[in-house]
Design brief:
Layout: E1 2-8, H1 29-42, E2 51-59, H2 67-80, E3 82-93, H3 100-108, E4 113-119, H4 123-129, H5 135-147, E5 153-159, H6 166-179, E6 183-188, H7 196-202, H8 211-227, E7 231-234, E8 237-239, H9 246-252, E9 256-260, E10 265-267, E11 271-275, H10 279-287, E12 293-297, H11 300-311, E13 318-319, H12 320-327, H13 331-334, H14 336-344, E14 348-351, E15 354-357, H15 359-362, H16 365-372
Parallel strand pairs: 1-2, 1-9, 2-3, 3-4, 4-5, 5-6
Antiparallel strand pairs: 6-8, 7-8, 10-11, 11-12, 13-15, 14-15
Helix pairs in contact: 1-2, 1-10, 6-8
């Protein structure tokens, strides 16, 4: 099993919190699509004989592409790779792009999962984030997608915004539950340096949410969604039974994947590749039949740490037996003191060779992870 990620680096406007690679200048879009097609051709051997079960269009805002551009990219992928019988094909989309006509077109070219970037149902907060949609558009996009037969739907929400109250977060969760999308991704806001929020923070115009309040937000999220029947299968991801994101799960389980497009990453178990995060240089390199990436070979220590870092975020936790079998590394023994200390304060628990975070431990996941890696 393998996955393919396609990065579409264009947006209508820049959200104040986003530090992903994107551009609001769409004049290079046609040339970039040609570059993506060329890269697919040049990378056809990267996944060897692995069967591709997931294809994910991320960004940026992939919903800015035309139906013809989507179908062209998908067809080129099919020509170059072994595709499973029923691949999960996900598109990240903004609510303001999802008209009935657009949704019908996406369905017609094979998109069968939507990840809608709602972020909040609060109009004031959406304006503060500099999003292009409002609450009405957000609700309508989900309802229209359902009406047109999209059953595998996810929405993104953000918590921990400056001055965001528990009541405001609760209102967002209530609206999300009314829409009953089978998957909800909800992320704590981080202030990145090279963003509008980062600039405001330097100017003392913005403060991060207090850690205790942010923890209270996460506790509210976990309790509310789990009481509504959602499974927290990864720290930031909740789903109704059977609706886990297959593509994102492949990252957490160490499955091979190929990243196409500027700033995209690839992984084959032994190394990572990082495509150049510059649209013009990416386009020019592929015009010259050059693959624009740098490669990082992963040592055994790197591979162990990556396994710990990703697996600890999962509901089932870290498979300690896997580490012994594949790396002769006994995590429970090597980190026994730290694990015992976290067990005592009910932040970690072990069961059948799995080490996992408790609900209390999830509030300090990054801190705990630092103590477990080697």
């Amino acid at each position: 099993m393998a996955g393919i990620y396609v990065h579409i680096p264009y947006c209508k406007q820049a959200c104040h919190y986003c530090d992903f690679h994107f551009s609001t200048n769409l004049t290079t879009k046609s040339d970039l699509i040609e570059g993506i097609l060329k890269e697919i051709d040049l990378q056809k051997k990267y996944l060897a004989e692995e069967i591709v079960e997931t294809i994910y269009f991320g960004g940026g805002t992939p919903s800015l592409l035309s139906t013809f551009e989507f179908s062209t990219i998908l067809e080129r992928i099919r020509q170059n790779f072994l595709i499973g019988q029923s691949p999960e094909i996900t598109l990240e989309a903004n609510p303001d792009d999802l008209t009935s006509a657009k949704l019908a077109e996406l369905k017609s070219v094979g998109v069968n999962r939507l990840s809608i970037g709602i972020q909040s149902f609060d109009d004031d907060l959406l304006s503060y984030f500099n999003r292009a949609h409002d609450n009405e558009m957000a609700v309508k996009s989900v309802r229209e997608a359902k009406k047109l037969g999209f059953t595998n739907l996810s929405i993104d929400l953000i918590f921990g915004a400056p001055d965001q109250s528990l009541a405001a977060l609760e209102a967002d969760l209530d609206q999300a539950l009314k829409l009953r999308t089978p998957h909800i991704s909800i992320y704590g806001l981080t202030i990145e340096e090279n963003t509008v929020f980062g600039k405001w923070q330097k100017q003392n115009k913005l403060n991060s949410l207090d850690d205790d309040i942010a923890a209270a937000h996460l506790e509210l999220i976990m309790e509310t969604l789990e009481n509504a029947g959602y499974i927290q299968y990864e720290i930031s991801n909740f789903c109704l039974p059977g609706f886990e994101s297959k593509h994102n799960s492949s990252y957490w389980y160490g499955t091979w994947y190929l990243g196409i497009g500027p700033a995209a990453h690839s992984y084959n178990g032994k190394s990572r590749q990082y495509n150049q995060a510059h649209n013009i240089k990416y386009i020019q390199g592929l015009k010259n039949n050059e693959l624009p990436f740098t490669i990082e070979n992963l040592s055994e220590k790197d591979q162990i740490n990556e396994f710990i870092i990703t697996q600890i975020r999962l509901k089932k936790g870290i498979d300690c037996q896997y580490l012994i079998k594949h790396y002769s590394f006994d995590l429970l023994s090597t980190k026994s003191e730290a694990i015992e200390n976290f067990n005592k304060v009910e932040m970690l628990e072990t069961e059948s060779n799995f080490l996992r975070l408790t609900p209390k431990g999830k509030l300090l996941a990054d801190f705990i992870t630092e103590k477990l890696i080697i």
